């Protein structure tokens, strides 16, 4: 899509609206203090433009809403399960599907099946819930992403790529028999929504085959990744998003999916695989943690909406507009001189908090402070992706200090207009001009797990 040459519009029209509440700056200041400077703890009714996440907050189509009325809510053997299962195989290639309430349900089951105590799981940068489930199962996560992924200024087109040399070094250090699988995310969230190339995924596939290691796919944003391959990788310009998505999935052995993102539903996920023995183990565990293997924590109507959402998610005009809106916001911020992660990602624009707030040391959580300041300025809710999200070392108790200290402006699918993006960009510009007034933060409450969800903070004085 060449946004510079001509205007474009979303490939849909609005059929229903949800009114938004406007608040005053003083009301927002009181709200953020009450929330402990954590945007996750703000009531949604006090938020004007909600860019906290793209998970489960997209707008479903008229076809999906119509499908909800065809929900078969039978406890066992729901007709909607079979439609969903067939859609997963047709569009994503996997032979077996186990529904889960959302992606982390699939992560939990897969980790328990494949991981033994003392294992190592390499991946192209961690994701919070994925890493935690791996650790709870007894594994150590090892980052094998290319170095460019840790540099927000780099324009490397495939920052989600795996550094094969790092993968090989890990195998030599611990032994390939201690690596149950390589975990590959398409459009790596924590790197700024950055894609992996098809060529690199084929290299990883070859490495896994040579070392008798499984290749597991976190396919939450696979359609967005396919778009970047189509636009940036030789030999794919004339292929459809649907074809590229299938090819990506077909290179892997199993997948976890949070359907609340690319698949355009408000709830749901699945674990998919090609190995019947893994499928049998997954069916045994899903009954313990989620529900019967033909619903797994999802209502029949939600499985129907998911089956339809899968078909819509791989349509070229949809994904082009989805990524195009992210690109619109990112380019607008770059024109304003705002430091962001380059290239612009597929689901969000990531602000470089350390560049915007250089006076705040990383152990005072500049990304968390910036997210709170943006809410106070205009009622825009965003989220931190830096030291708070990274957590603490189990061994030392010290905070992890990632090279990327980011604020994520995440665009829900088919929800906001370009005018909303203009409001967001103008707010970021205002806050950046007043950056010297923003103070660092310290914890007043820190949960044991995934502290970014429920942790509370207060400003560091002085």
TrEMBL record:
It holds the Pfam family Beta_elim_lyase. Its EC number is 4.1.99.2. Gene3D superfamilies: Aspartate Aminotransferase, domain 1 (3.90.1150.10), Type I PLP-dependent aspartate aminotransferase-like (Major domain) (3.40.640.10). It is an enzyme of class 4 (lyase). InterPro entries: ArAA_b-elim_lyase/Thr_aldolase (IPR001597), Beta-eliminating_lyase (IPR011166), PyrdxlP-dep_Trfase (IPR015424), PyrdxlP-dep_Trfase_major (IPR015421), PyrdxlP-dep_Trfase_small (IPR015422), Tyr_phenol_ly (IPR013441). The modification N6-(pyridoxal phosphate)lysine is found at residue 261. Keywords: Lyase, Pyridoxal phosphate. Residues 50-426 form the Aromatic amino acid beta-eliminating lyase/threonine aldolase domain. It catalyses: L-tyrosine + H2O = phenol + pyruvate + NH4(+). It comes from the Bacteria. One of its GO terms (biological process) is tyrosine metabolic process. Belongs to the beta-eliminating lyase family. Homotetramer. PANTHER family: BETA-ELIMINATING LYASE-LIKE PROTEIN-RELATED, TRYPTOPHANASE. This is Tyrosine phenol-lyase. It comes from Parasedimentitalea huanghaiensis. The lineage of its organism: Bacteria, Pseudomonadati, Pseudomonadota, Alphaproteobacteria, Rhodobacterales.
């Amino acid at each position: 899509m060449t946004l510079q040459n001509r205007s474009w519009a979303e490939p849909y029209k609005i059929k229903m609206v949800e009114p938004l509440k406007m608040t005053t700056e003083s009301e927002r200041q009181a709200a953020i203090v009450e929330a402990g400077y954590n945007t996750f703890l703000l009531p949604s009714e006090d938020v004007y433009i909600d860019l906290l996440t793209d998970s489960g907050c997209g707008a479903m189509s008229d076809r999906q809403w119509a499908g909800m009325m065809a929900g078969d809510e039978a406890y066992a053997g729901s007709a909607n399960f079979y439609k969903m299962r067939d859609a997963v195989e047709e569009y994503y290639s996997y032979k077996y599907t186990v529904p889960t309430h959302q992606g982390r349900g699939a992560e939990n089951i897969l980790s328990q099946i494949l991981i033994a105590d003392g294992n190592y799981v390499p991946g192209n940068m961690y994701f919070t819930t994925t890493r935690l489930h791996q650790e709870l199962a007894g594994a150590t996560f090892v980052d094998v992403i290319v170095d460019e992924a840790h540099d927000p200024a780099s324009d490397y087109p495939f920052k989600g790529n795996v550094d094969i040399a790092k993968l090989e070094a890990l195998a030599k250090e611990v032994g390939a028999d201690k690596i149950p699988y390589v975990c590959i995310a398409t459009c790596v969230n924590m790197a700024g929504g950055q894609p992996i190339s098809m060529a690199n995924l084929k290299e990883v596939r070859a490495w896994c085959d040579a070392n008798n290691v499984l290749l597991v796919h976190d396919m939450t944003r696979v359609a967005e990744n396919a778009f970047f391959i189509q636009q940036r990788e030789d030999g794919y310009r004339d292929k459809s998003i649907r074809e590229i998505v299938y090819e990506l999935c077909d290179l892997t052995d199993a997948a976890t999916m949070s359907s609340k993102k690319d698949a355009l539903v408000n709830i749901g996920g699945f674990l998919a695989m090609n190995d019947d023995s893994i499928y049998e183990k997954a069916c045994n565990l899903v009954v313990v943690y989620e529900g019967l293997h033909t619903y797994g924590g999802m209502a029949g109507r939600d499985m129907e909406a998911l089956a339809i959402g899968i078909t819509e998610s791989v349509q070229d005009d949809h994904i082009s507009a989805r990524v195009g809106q992210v690109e619109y916001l990112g380019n607008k911020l770059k024109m304003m001189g705002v430091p962001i992660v380059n290239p612009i990602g597929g689901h969000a624009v990531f602000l470089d908090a350390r560049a915007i707030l250089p006076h705040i040391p990383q152990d005072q959580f500049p990304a968390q402070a910036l997210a709170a300041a943006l809410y106070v300025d205009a009622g825009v809710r965003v989220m931190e992706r830096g030291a708070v999200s990274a957590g603490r070392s189990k061994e030392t108790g010290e905070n992890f200090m990632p090279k990327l200290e980011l604020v994520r402006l995440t665009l829900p699918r088919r929800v906001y207009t370009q005018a909303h993006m203009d409001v967001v960009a103008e707010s970021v510009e205002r806050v950046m001009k007043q950056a010297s007034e923003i103070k660092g933060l310290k914890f007043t409450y820190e949960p044991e797990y995934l502290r970014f969800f429920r942790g509370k903070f207060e400003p560091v004085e002085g």
